[in-house]
Write a structure and sequence with these properties.
Blueprint lengths: L1 E5 L7 H9 L4 E6 L11 H13 L5 H18 L5 H15 L5 H20 L2 E2 L16 H12 L5 E4 L2 E3 L5 E3 L6 H10 L4 E6 L20 E3 H9 L7 H10 L3 E5 L8 E4 L12 E14 L9 H11 L4 E6 L3 E6 L2 H18 L3 E14 L9 H11 L6 E4 L5 E7 L3 H12 L1
Helix pairs in contact: 2-3, 2-5, 3-4, 6-7, 7-9, 8-9, 10-11, 12-13
Length: 433
């Protein structure tokens, strides 16, 4: 059994979407997104939110509704089916008018997925199942997983093939609640886990994941298989694949994820699973990094013997809700790596509080730090890995400002100057991949 999620970008070629779904009878449940941005129009969800905003400002929103209708008419015509889009647009308008100032933003914003799923179900001859009937949020806005998994499992037992709108569910009071923007994949992962699917598929217009930033390494290899935790590391260091929460959900349920590109549907795609047993795969699977971080250096004699030093320091950062990316410590010095607009806005105040609470011998800010990760399963214990990494950087005359090996043996992270970032990535790619 396969659960498939089609992102908004795929609906520029909805006929291709239908062909892909029909090509494999094991695809039983499809989660649909609202059509995304095109070269001539913004995405449907953005237009719906603008409708809501225009209504509140007492501005004319009929032009936006006409544009939404036109996008769907194009999809319906390309599929060669009859679908009463006028009735859906009229229902949307009625909701705005009847609800008045209480018109719910989440309800209006969810109608893109709702209408798309109904059209797709009509074209496939499948059942339409409304997500609001089986994906439930708690009052605090978090998904009620126990209630949701049970409801999805029981509901979909009644439907061998079904199309489900993504991006939303319902609150305890029955009103519509959307996921955060860009989090439509959660709907698909929830369905996949609830029905214990064999695979969860994610389809987008272009879905290739490279072993380094192609802007730095133009001929970077395409990654074919990685583990869930390698994907989490890649997310952190700048190569966004899919949200961490989705990866952890699928990992816990032991459901592999396949990522496909609509433009290259014959390709085998990229597999993300719990473990990689391919002995021919490189130890390092990816070189990725981020620029523009700050490093705070705090020196105090006898720091290693002080009780409560870390508690005071991290308490200050917690107070300002600033996450510390990395922490490096020595006998008399601790260095913290941060990247936060909140830190930039409150830097002087934070430094004054550190001086008052800790009374350091010196405190210094170093700006323009890049972190680069060499990522791979069991890369830490592999003999000779550190030698290859630092020999490559030394040969390119790169000054290393920070070294951090992940405790889960998935990465070796180095910090370099922003000015050395591209050269360091090239050196590490050449040596490791």
């Amino acid at each position: 059994m396969i659960v498939s999620k089609f992102g908004g970008s795929t609906f520029v070629d909805v006929k291709k979407v239908v062909e892909i779904i029909k090509s494999n009878p094991e695809r039983q449940y499809v989660i649909a997104s609202a059509p995304g941005e095109s070269s001539s129009e913004m995405g449907i969800t953005d237009m719906l939110f603008m409708c809501h905003s225009s209504f509140y400002r007492h501005e004319n929103y009929n032009e936006l509704l006409d544009k939404i209708k036109a996008v769907y008419e194009k999809i319906i015509n390309s599929l060669g089916i009859y679908f009463d889009i006028d009735a859906e647009i009229l229902e949307l308008k009625k909701n705005l008018l009847s609800a008045g100032q209480k018109a719910e933003l989440d309800f209006i914003g969810s109608r893109g997925e709702y209408i798309t799923a109904k059209i797709l179900a009509k074209s496939l001859g499948w059942d339409f199942v409304d997500a609001s009937e089986m994906i439930f949020f708690k009052a605090d806005g978090n998904v009620d997983e126990e209630k949701t998994f049970k409801a999805v499992n029981e509901k979909l037992k009644q439907h061998k093939y079904a199309v489900i709108p993504g991006f939303y569910g319902s609150l305890p009071n029955g009103s519509i609640k959307t996921f955060s923007r860009g989090d439509g994949d959660s709907s698909g992962a929830i369905v996949a886990c609830a029905v214990n699917a064999d695979f969860f598929e994610k389809w987008s217009q272009t879905a290739k994941v490279f072993s380094a930033n192609p802007a730095v390494i133009p001929d970077a290899k395409i990654i074919k298989n990685i583990t869930f935790m390698e994907a989490v590391e890649m997310n952190y260091t700048g190569i966004k694949i899919i949200k961490d929460s989705v990866l952890f959900m699928l990992k816990k349920a032991e459901i592999p994820l396949k990522i496909y590109s609509l433009n290259d549907s014959e390709n085998e795609g990229m597999l993300i699973s719990s473990d990689i047993k391919n002995s021919s795969r490189n130890t390092a699977v990816c070189i990725s990094g981020r620029k523009g971080l700050d490093m705070i250096h705090i020196e105090k004699y006898g720091l290693n013997k002080m009780s409560g030093f870390g508690e005071k320091l991290f308490g200050l950062f917690s107070k300002y809700r600033i996450p510390c990316e990395h922490c490096l410590s020595g006998i008399h010095k601790m260095s913290l790596v941060v990247k936060s607009p909140i830190f930039d806005l409150n830097k002087s105040e934070i430094f004054n509080e550190i001086k008052k609470a800790i009374q350091p011998d010196s405190i210094r800010l170093e700006k323009g730090l890049s972190i680069i990760a060499v990522i791979g399963q069991n890369i830490g214990p592999k003999p000779g890995t550190f030698a290859k990494v630092f020999s490559a950087l030394a040969a390119s005359k790169i000054v290393v400002k920070m070294i951090d090996q992940g405790s889960d043996d998935l990465n070796i992270i180095v910090g370099v100057s922003d000015n050395d970032y591209e050269n360091a990535v090239r050196a590490l790619y050449q040596a490791m991949i």
